[in-house]
Amino acid sequence: MRVELLFWAGCPSHPRALADLREAMDALGLDPESVIVREIVTDEQAASDGFVGSPTIRIDGLDVQPLEDEPTGLTCRVYRRRDGRVSPTPDPGDVRDALQAATMAASTGRSR
User: Fold this and answer.
1) What pLDDT, on the 0 to 100 scale, is given for residue 108?
2) CA gap 43, 27 in Å, rounded
3) 68-75: which pairs have CB atoms within 8 A and are 24 or more residues apart?
4) Residue 89 pLDDT
5) Residue 42: how many CB atoms within 10 A of its CB?
6) d(C-alpha 35, C-alpha 103), whole Å
7) What is the pTM of this model?
8) What 8-state DSSP symbol labels residue 50?
9) Neighbours of 43 (CB within 10 A)
């Protein structure tokens, strides 16, 4: 399973997102140190990577909270929590569910 956190240094929320991601991985018995952390530094890189804002968490290439028709670029991302609040980081439940789905898919040999 490939777990990535993409970030732009101009947005201060990526350390919290990385800590939440690693905590969720640890709780599920996954190696929290295996997260691939990549900084996005140019608009060109954002476009080629489909980067819609910082932080972005992808598991096996899939965003934990996919956005439709969102422009790419060096910007801070806004998430909607399960309770309706707006947040600079994804809901921990969404991260956990995405990790569990990827783990299940890997164990059965299916893609999500």
Assistant:
1) 80
2) 35
3) 72/43, 72/46, 72/47, 73/43, 73/46, 73/47, 74/8, 74/10, 74/40, 74/41, 74/42, 74/43, 74/46, 75/8, 75/11
4) 97
5) 11
6) 14
7) 0.92
8) T
9) 13
Give the separation between CA 71 and CA 47, rounded to whole angstroms.
Answer: 8
pLDDT for the residue numbered 69: 86
Name the stretches of the chain with pLDDT < 50.
Answer: 112
Phi first, then psi: what are they for 88, rounded to 5°?
A: -80, -5
Tokens 């140019």 belong to which residue?
42
Cβ-in-10-Å burial (0-12, 13-18, 19+) of 72 comes to middle
* Integer Cα distance of 39 and 104 in angstroms: 29
For helices 92-108 and 14-27, angle between their N-to-C axes, nearest 10 degrees: 50
Residue with tokens 């783990």: 103
**What are the counts of helices (DSSP H) followed by strands (DSSP E) for the chain?**
3, 6
Place of tokens 């790419």: 72
